[in-house]
Amino acid sequence: MLELDCGEGHLCRLLSGHGYTVTGIDISPIAILWALKKNTQHSDVVNYICGDFSQEMFFSFDMIVDGNYLHCIPGEFRQSFLENFSICLTERGVFFVSSLCSQNSNVQIIHRNGLAYRYIPSVEGLKSELEQSGFIILALQVHPRSEYDHINLLVKRRPG
Q1: How many CB atoms lie within 10 A of CB 122?
Q2: Is 71 inside a domain boundary?
Q3: Is the pTM of this model over 0.85?
């Protein structure tokens, strides 16, 4: 399995400890160094990659876990990221998405220092993005929160 935006590798180590073969990817070299350091402290075997998923990757996974990564990708880049995730899934693989979503039908963009920091689509908007990228939605759960809701989706590649 692959964890996107793995940070210091907490989820990677947890799954590795349960017998899964795990790879973590993060764009931050510092995060990868932290993960590698913690790997040696916990004797878990996790492969870490410092990489950018906006570039096509040539790996294959049975499961990809988005631990709150997708809402960090601005609107104009999301389609290429989703297509890359789809390419990396095996034919029977699944993609678990955990993301913020708006409480209405509007896209909300949070800016920090003048740059888009969070892209928060509506539930229907996120479903549409995933379907347009070749995914079939297997399960969807929305968790109401005070300012933004949180959504979990389990999807797989559309056959063919």
Answers
A1: 18
A2: yes
A3: yes
25 Cβ partners below 8 Å, 6+ apart?
2, 3, 4, 5, 6, 48, 49, 50, 51, 53
Is position 17 within any domain? yes
Token code pair at residue 153: 């989706």
Q: Is 68 part of any domain? A: yes
Q: How many helices (H) and strands (E) does the chain have?
A: 4, 9
pLDDT in tens, 107-160: 999 999 998 889 999 999 999 999 999 999 999 999 999 999 999 999 999 987
Q: How many domains in the chain?
A: 2
The residues pairing with 39 across neighbouring beta strands, listed in sequence order, are none
132-141, long-range: CB within 8 Å, 24+ apart, which pairs? 132/79, 133/79, 133/82, 133/83, 133/85, 133/86, 134/83, 134/86, 134/158, 135/82, 135/86, 135/95, 138/94
Alpha-carbon distance 69 to 74, whole Å? 11
The answer to whether the Cα torsion of 123, 127, 130, 136 is positive or negative is positive
pLDDT digits (tens, 9 = 90+) for 29-62: 999 999 999 888 776 689 999 988 777 777 899 9
